[in-house]
Amino acid sequence: MNAVACSAPSASSSLTVQGRVIAALILREIHTLYGNTSLGYLWAVILTAFNISVFWLFREMFGAHAPHGMGMAVFLLCGFIPWNMFNNTLARCMSAVSANRALLTFPQVTELDLMFGRLIVVWGTQSVCAAIILALAAALGQPMELRRPGALAATLFFAPLLGLGMGLIFASLARFWPTLERLVPIMMRFLFFASGVFFQVSELPARLSEPLLFNPVAQLIEWQRYGFSASSAAPAYSVSYAAVWCLGSLTLGLLLERCARGRELR
């Protein structure tokens, strides 16, 4: 009885300490990213809005319109937010250990804590960006109607998880093959243009759309746009496909992280 009674407070205390560690890492990450600029946190909103404006201008020049009753701002936002959540989480997780080696000398801090802290910062930043830009678009009279809230909630959950899983995989493999740290950003540039960030994959001919939809990020973007779409046509995404990618990458990433960590210790 005494052993059981003593173990419960110990477990609770460990979770409390771990929670405080992650909270401290989140505050440190926010200060590092935005504390040294005069615009601060607003810079993230400006950068996302600028990207949307550039591609909006290009689409207007070519006479392209947003499909299925969406405004152009909402259409592009539904491309950039899932992409930014995925890509930024992946990139920040890959550099988490190399940028915070000094913190790992503390026994309470683990590599996963660093990655979870960065994931939360990316998720929170992009969610705030999306809310602000949607409010501005509504104020400017852009048509928008969230017809399927579940689609929006699910993609905001899956996109950073996919980024975490792929970030764990690439960060672990980079310890065996350091050149990967330089190759991944190049791969992400190609993936950006293959993910439907500024165009609708499902509107392309089948010979083009079917290969592109093997990309899970393209599926998430299609899924989020479906939440704002007035179309009653069958969606082009697969919930099970996106879920398998997220769970599979997380499982493989955690296994590789353990292997890579053990190799460093030897």
Description of the structure:
The chain has 266 residues and is mainly alpha-helical. It has helices spanning 2-34, 42-61, 72-94, 96-99, 111-139, 149-176, 180-193, 206-212, 216-228, 239-265. It has one domain. α2 crosses α3, α3 runs antiparallel to α7 (180-193) and α9 (216-228) crosses α10 (239-265).
Task: Describe the protein's topology.
Elements: H1 2-34, H2 42-61, H3 72-94, H4 96-99, H5 111-139, H6 149-176, H7 180-193, H8 206-212, H9 216-228, H10 239-265
Helix pairs in contact: 1-5, 2-3, 2-5, 3-5, 3-6, 3-7, 3-9, 5-6, 6-9, 6-10, 9-10
Annotation, overall tally of beta strands: 0
Shape: globular
Number of helices: 10
**What is the residue-mean pLDDT, rounded to a whole number?**
86
**Assembly annotation:** single chain
Q: Which features does this protein show?
A:
disordered N terminus; 266 residues; mainly alpha; single chain; 10 helices; globular
Summarize the structure.
The protein has about 270 residues and is mainly α. It has ten helices and no strands.
